[in-house]
Amino acid sequence: MEIIQDKTNKKVNAYTCGDCGKNTVVKHRDQGVTPFFMRCVHCEGKAISHMYKVPQGLKHDLTVFSPANDKEWEMYRQYLKSYYKKRKVYNKKLLQDALAATKNHINAGGVIMVPADVIKI
Ligand SMILES: [Zn+2]
Predict the structure, then answer these.
(1) Which of 12, 26, 69, 113 is the most exposed place for a label (fewest CB within 10 A)?
(2) How many structural domains is the chain composed of?
């Protein structure tokens, strides 16, 4: 049986939206598995991965990373808080639960995505 892994040394991937047709471009700072589908940054429609088969020089919308220290976790916490507040769903428990789930995800080798201006690479 063949084991299929989405492992690549390429850093830039794009997801094309089925609704608006635009691309959401992501760039890895850190290695890790990313989802095959994601929400389009332009319209929140469903966007599908190009499996890293895209020009590697594309300007990225999102940075893919794994927080390396307390400073980066704090930056992510602030980002998540403002994200929830913008959507008018913020409460302390939601934020705490989301951070706990994210820590489990990172500890299991996962990565997270934030807008490119939140972490510059
Ligand atoms: Zn879209």
Answers:
(1) 69
(2) 1
